[in-house]
Amino acid sequence: MKVRSVLLVNAGSDADIVTIANDGTFPALGVVSLATVLRQDHPDVDVIAIDGQITPMAEVERLIAEFSPDVLGVGVLATSYENSLRLAELGKNAGAVTVFGNDQATAMGEQILRHREVVDYVCAADVGEFSLSALVSALDGERPIESVPELLYRSPDGIGHNRLPEIPADRIKGRGGALKSMVLDAIPVPDRTLMPDGNWNRYLDNYLNRYGMFHEGEKVTGVTTMNRARGCARVKAPCHFCGIMDLNLRFSSPEMFWDEVRTAQQQISASIFYEAFDSMSSSPRWVKAVVEAKPDDIGDDAKFFVYTQAAETTPRLVELYQRLGVYRVNMGLESGDTRMLKFLKGPRDSLENNQRACRLFKEAGILIHGSLVLGGPGETPESLENTVRFGRWLIDNEMMASLEAQPLYPDFGALTGKWMMDPNLARQVAKDRGFEILDDKLLDLMPSKYGSTDMVDFDDVSKDWSKIFSHASWDELIDATHTIRSYAERVGTITGSGRMTQTTLGSL
């Protein structure tokens, strides 16, 4: 075949999933970045990128029918899987080759291809831009399918998986020396004009409706996401519930960082930037280099929302954030109980460190978006109550601009999910770390219950997890979630929850 048109869609959340605090306010940049590389590598291909989180499903369906793409690429999260399958079905009916990518596709790629004939390929790359471009070349007959990096596909021998480097060597700039870790310079600055103007207008409206009160006296002209660094300092010992596949630290050069800021200002009048670096606090040296490289023409209008960690927060880091223009941080606080924090995250984490970080940011005038995870390994009614009390402390002391809370979901790409799929590993970890397996028989059923399916119910797997690993029952976890969220909402703090259904949470 000859690929002449590609439609890239970030699938919107399924109907029964509650929103999180940032839903629909910041763009799904992945589809824009994919479209940018495709346009550069295949200039004759017509490429459109849209975000199903803000574009109604009926419009997406109509676009598939009218555009009739040769290739339909879908960004898939666990929270949008049913919608993604619907899009794949529509794509196949329109004659498209269908490709799934993003977190859920990476974690469940083999199961998806075994169960879903409407999905032709799965891209498991963390940096998927060059894999998708290579796939288009393969579909055009210009290279073998076996040469496409991190691609999963059906073959006569079963499911093939090309475990090849995601970024081609000839794309990496400045190899060696001081720039050896600046591999993300290979990813070009996204061309945000490849997403319809209506999407950008909707992001801005959503942001102002939800967060406009934080910008009194300021003019917010546009919002965008960017991702010029990736990874986390916890790469060797990740948080137990973290499902990010590649936590190795990788960066763009400071010059590339500011080039993207400048381009986004010019293309969509961006003034608010959500830098999706998995943990900005993991590399204060890089932050310092970015701050010192800031060009004079950028001005002070560019404001940043960044991921950060309490255990890594120091006065020096906060001062760097202020110089960069950080106005809000996304900080996973997870628990108000030191014992649980050490189980969930590691030895450096504690309630004291959580509180210290919150105070430092508050004193600096930097807003905090916080999150709490309930029902970790060894959770007890007492530790759960400590977290509820901590949530009240955060709200009473006006620490939180927004706050999420939910029971732990054992992502199958995370350590918690791996314990569910490997009972012997779970028992050994429990013995080594000092928590208890509460239902051995149920644990032994987990590999057969979830190991071969591509469709996982969030509530079911969270309930199973709590029965096996948490002394606090599922009902107690849900009650605590309601208590935290309702307490926050009574005083006007924005709340949300990530992987929970409307049926479970009901109306507050």
Question: Keyphrases for this structure?
Answer:
metal ion binding, metal-binding, disordered C terminus, seven-stranded mixed β-sheet, alpha/beta, 508 residues, 15% strand, pyruvate-formate lyase- activating enzyme, iron-sulfur, seven-stranded parallel β-sheet, Rossmann fold, single chain, globular
Summarize the structure.
Helix content is 41%, strand content 15%.
Question: In words, what does this structure look like?
Answer:
Residues 12-146 form the B12-binding domain. Keywords: Iron, Iron-sulfur, Metal-binding, S-adenosyl-L-methionine. With 508 residues, the protein is an alpha/beta fold. The chain has 2 domains: 5-157, 3-Layer(aba) Sandwich (Rossmann fold), CATH 3.40.50.280; 192-504, pyruvate-formate lyase- activating enzyme. Helices cover 41% and strands 15% of the residues. The chain has 18 helices and 16 strands. It has helices at residues 29-41, 57-67, 81-93, 103-115, 129-139, 197-211, 254-268, 284-292, 315-324, 338-344, 351-363, 381-396, 415-421, 423-433, 440-450, 458-469, 474-490, 502-505; strands at residues 5-10, 46-51, 71-75, 97-101, 121-123, 151-155, 158-161, 223-226, 229-230, 250-251, 272-275, 303-308, 326-334, 367-374, 402-407, 494-496. The strands form 3 sheets. A 7-stranded mixed beta sheet has the order 2-1-3-4-5-6-7, sandwiched between helices. A 7-stranded parallel beta sheet has the order 8-11-12-13-14-15-16. α4 links the parallel β4 and β5. α8 packs parallel to α9, α12 (381-396) runs parallel beside α17 (474-490) and α13 crosses α14. The model is unreliable at 175-179 and 499-508 (pLDDT under 50).
